[in-house]
Task: structure prediction
Amino acid sequence: MEDSTRSSVDLKRSEAEFPIDLESGSPAPTIVERPQGRLRRHFGSTINDQYTDNILLLCWFSTGILDSTMFNAYRTFVSMQTGNTMFLGLGASDYDITTRPYGWAKSLTSLICFVLGAIFFSRLAHYLRP
Result:
């Protein structure tokens, strides 16, 4: 009598730990949810698109101001990588070498930092995805 009671208790415990799919008779797949941290919840929340145009206009304005001041100061672009690519090509062709002999090096540095930043933040976004 004890053996039958013990086996039914063990059976109930194993069903609770490993649920069985009744149609196939095999263990049902279990979905394990990862605990979400504060950053995951924040970046995974829904976005209110009421003011997104204003944010894009602010980004557009700030990158324009940033590029115009940095170009006047350092003769390289900070956020416009197309201009840096153009300056890199002009440097490779030895155009305007008398006034800026190593001007292409600034553009190359800016392009390398842009690529490294894009790789870093794409990996960060992959890590933080919901």
Observations:
- The CA atoms of residues 16 and 84 lie 62 Å apart.
- Confidence is low (pLDDT under 50) at residues 6-15.
- The longest helix spans residues 103-128.
